[in-house]
Every structure is written in structure tokens, then in C-alpha cells.
Amino acid sequence: MSMRKRRVLLAGRKKRAQGPRPNHRRADGPEPGSAAWERMRERRRRSFRRGFRLAGWLVLSGLTAWGASVVSREAVPVVRKWFVIQTVTVQGLDRVTRQEILDRLSLRDDATLFSVHPQALEERLMGHPWIKAVEIRRVPFHELQVTVAERKPAAVVRTASGDWLTDDEGHVLSKLESGDEPALPLLTGIDSHGLLHGDPAARRAAKVGIDLANLVTQTLDSRVEVDVGNPANLVASVRGLRFQFGRSPVDEQWERFRKVRPALRFVTFDGDGRGPNEIDLRYSGRVIVRERG
Q1: What is the spatial order of strands in the sheet that 162-166 belongs to?
Q2: Any long-range contacts for 265-270 (C-beta under 8 Å, 24+ apart)?
Q3: Closest to 136 (Cα-Cα) out of 127, 144, 128, 124
Q4: pLDDT tier for residue 24 given thresholds of 50, 70 and 90
Q5: DSSP-derived secondary structure letter, 29
Q6: ∠ CA(271), CA(277), CA(283), 5° rounding?
Q7: Residues paired with residue 146 on neighbouring β-strands, in sequence order
Q8: pTM value?
Q9: Percent of the chain with pLDDT strictly greater than 70
């Protein structure tokens, strides 16, 4: 036997004598059967179960979304028919017509209770000059209920461009094309351009004139004309008699006149021309009566 073969044979015997080579990967981990080994296996099982549940939820969610889209596509047309607006009831109308309300709402034929937005519809109606407030409610299953609060005429404002109806806040309601409103106070001295464009100063002037006219009417039951052109010198005319008011509160000035009126026995307020021409209340604590002529 050659020397080389003897060396190979000896190496093989030595290797068998040493036994199998150790498993380094197994040596790095826990010993099989140990508590640590069992904990590791349990962690792996839990991780697998979590992954499996997540995959299941993803599949279920996808199926649910797909089913919902199919149901929605098929059911929406049916549900829409249940809530299509078939009736519009309108309450609180006096000067405004029902057709004006419907025209401003501009509802589509297929509009439903859920496709319309009450607040947006209310804003459309608030653009009408006669409408002061409005409330819109959905009434199942086919009704839209509109409740309107109209502005009330409080005065006639006479300007160079014509006579205009206003409410007690100075909002212009409409133009008087023909005739007059003799039951309402008549205001003069207001800028028509400012009034028509909602100028706050013009509206305040109108409100001051209306308040003064109502105050005078409580004592002298007749139509009052008020010139508000000069805020520091308001002039109210009634039954041919002129009242001049100064800067102090007009209710205090008018109360001064009411207190001395019984003493003015020679003064008549019947509009026959026999009374005084003017009563001046501009001076504190005084009532100045100026006779005609």
C-alpha cells in the first residue's frame, strides 16, 4: 500500500472516530425541546396566525366594497324614487306670490330631499326684497316645507326718482308705480341712490323718520310727513302744522309738547287753517308756538 493511500485511510478512520460535525446553526439557537425552543415556535405560530387573519380581512374588505358598489348601483335609483320632492308647501305669504318662491328655488324635476340643501335654498329666497326671514324643512317622504316672514311696509319715501315703499328698517320693498299709500308716513330728504343701494346712512335716516312719525301719530292721529334731510333739525308736518325737532332725543321733545298742549287752548289741530303755523321744540325746556300770518 502506498504512502498516499495509507494517509487517506487514516484520515477517514480519524474522522469517523471524531463523530459527525456539529450543526453550527442549531448550536446558535435554543436547544430543541427546551422552553426557549417552545416559546420561539409559539411566536412563529402567532405570527403566522396574524398574517393569515390580516389576509382574510383584506379579502373580506375587498369583497364587501365590491358588494356595496353593486348594491349601490342597483339600489340608488330605487331609493331616489322614495324621496323625490313632489310637493312644495309655502306658508306666510301676503305680498309675495307662490310662483315667485318656486322660481327662486329653481328645483330640478328629479330633486330629492337629500339632494337639496335647505341653507342654500334659504339664501336664494332671502334675495327677494319682501322676504325678511325664511325657514325650509324636509318633510318625509316627498315634501319641502317653506315658511316665509315678509317685510311689512312702514313708510313711503319720496325722492326725485319716484316714491318707494320701505319697511321699518329702511329696506326698499318696491316702487310705487301709481297711487299712494296714505295710511303710511311720508318721508322726504333721503338720498334715493343711497337708499336703493342699501347705504347704512340712508337706512338710518329712514328709520329715524319712521320712528318720529309713529311717535307723532300716537298723539295726533293723522298722516305725518317727516323731512329727514337735516338730522339736526327734523321737521314733522301733520294737519298743516309743522313741528321742528333739535338734536336732543325726539321722544323727550315730544313729551314736552304733550305736557303743554292742554294749555294751548287757542291752538286747534283739525287742519282747517285756524291753528298755528309752527311749533318749535329745538330749545331745551321751551315750546315755541309761531302763529300764522
Answers
A1: 172-175, 162-166, 155-159, 186-188, 225-227, 234-238, 241-245, 278-280, 288-290
A2: 269/220, 269/238, 269/239, 269/241, 270/239
A3: 144
A4: very low
A5: S
A6: 125
A7: 90, 136
A8: 0.69
A9: 80
